[in-house]
Amino acid sequence: MDSILVRGGGELNGVIPIAGAKNACLTLMPATLLTEEPLTLTNAPRLSDIRTMTQLLQSLGAEVSSLQGGKVLAMSSHDIHNHTADYDIVRKMRASILVLGPMLARDGHAIVSLPGGCAIGARPVDLHLKALEAMGAELDLRDGYVHAKAPGGRLKGAVVEFPIVSVGATENALLAATLAKGTTVLKNAAREPEIVDLAHCLRRMGAQIEGEGSSTITIQGVDRLGGATHPVVTDRIELGTYMLAPAICGGEVECLGGRLDLVGAFAEKLDQAGISVTETERGLKVARKNGRVKAVDVTTEPFPGFPTDLQAQMMALLCTAEGTSVLEEKIFENRFMHAPELIRMGAKIDVHGGHATVTGVERLRGAPVMATDLRASVSLILAGLAAEGETVVSRVYHLDRGYEHVEDKLGACGARIERIKG
Ligand code: EPZ
Fold first, then answer.
1. Which of 25, 118, 249, 319 is catalytic?
2. Rounded to two decimals, what is the model's pTM?
3. Helix, strand, or coil (residue 175)
4. pLDDT by residue (tens digit) across 26-54?
5. For the purposes of burial, counting CB atoms within 10 Å of the CB of 151, is it exposed (0-12), middle (13-18) or buried (19 or more)?
6. Is 118 assigned a catalytic role?
7. Strands (DSSP E) along 294-406, which ranges?
């Protein structure tokens, strides 16, 4: 297993290109299952999760060609000969559950492995299943798989009210509703930019959708969808992650492709902490205003609130802030696994249930640390950039799921970072 070696110290100055969004691409790719026509995604990120979704779609019979070094995904599903998403792929990546809605909508049947838990929480899929049942699906859960059927081969429009906001359940229902007979209304729907991007792509394919980005999305089902070419929206989590690099180390970094509307609540918190964020023609320029970062309190919420996927990275910044910060994680039940690793680097963090209290110290010290999940891994790298001495982050396969060439992007801004092949 590879590790990443970071030698701390020194400001970061330069330019970082932001890739297409992993979490948009993972819900856009299953849309190919809704049509026999070609669906092409541009600005796709080059990540292991995308390769896993590619394998899954190919196992179902879809053709997926990765062009231009992986930045273009040319897909075609005119011959879906297998409707079973196997556990051995689904367990590697939970987003695999997003093939359920499209397969059910187009072909009237599907068998998809339940994804199982993951490090940050139980992450059930009950809301996905309830939404599809509301649309007429008959579901039989056995042997760890969901056996799904649409009576008469077609789902029907329904009013679906989500008891809590769920990104994935909203996406599965939105995908399925495009081909259902009649009108579907999704209430308390997630408002993430990735869902807005999915709606834009589906509309290009001929879907009739209104209200994406708000809590109520209305879909008028159609009989068939056509092909399209669609650019994947910028990755707001990668953007936020790299905005934190100059915040932690000092210096000034311009994030190409960055958009303030994608990171509103996060940028406000950075401003409160003493970090300047400026819109440029090419993206967002970030610099520490002057002196030490100031402590701020953070509560994670569904979009447009502070993203849970930036909580670990924000904690890395607050470890050396002036004062005490309280981070409240309200989305997942176990998303502070980066805290013990940061404590190994000299951070002062007390975790009680969903709250972490961080008392800022002058400087962290490099140490060997272990990545436990995707976003925790990059928070340890950020912490290592400003720490005194060397930090070795092990198990970076977590990192490669969501960040392409992190050592190249940070290295180009002056970071002393290298990958150690393991
Ligand atoms: C998506 O996961 C993202 N993944 C996650 O990013 C992100 O953290 C999360 O949304 C929240 O923004 C992808 O888009 C591939 P949810 P998802 O359904 O859809 C509970 C990353 O680092 N819930 O919004 O699984 C769930 O347990 C990843 O890129 C149910 O109870 O998240 C959680 O507590 C990590 N039943 C809460 O809702 C369900 O059926 C929010 O989960 C579904 C979810």
1. 118
2. 0.97
3. helix
4. 999 999 999 999 999 999 999 999 999 99
5. exposed
6. yes
7. 298-299, 324-328, 348-352, 355-359, 368-370, 390-394
